[in-house]
Structure formats: structure tokens, C-alpha cells
Write a structure and sequence with these properties.
Helix content: over 70%
Distance between the termini: 49 Å
Structural class: mainly alpha
Shape: rod-shaped
Length: 34
Amino acid sequence: MFAKPTALANMSIPTLERQKLAQQSELEIKTTTT
């Protein structure tokens, strides 16, 4: 089943990191604007 997990990892991990970065940036923008 886990013959090629690197492909999914390379595709899924960056997206999660991007989502986290996006949430952090949004929080920073909210805190700076308010």
C-alpha cells in the first residue's frame, strides 16, 4: 500500500504548510489592522 508515499507526501505536506502559513498571515493581518 505504501509503495510510493513520497509522491503523496510531496503533494499533501506543502498544501498543509501553505494552509498554515495562510492562516498565520491572516491572523497577523487581523492583529495588525485592529
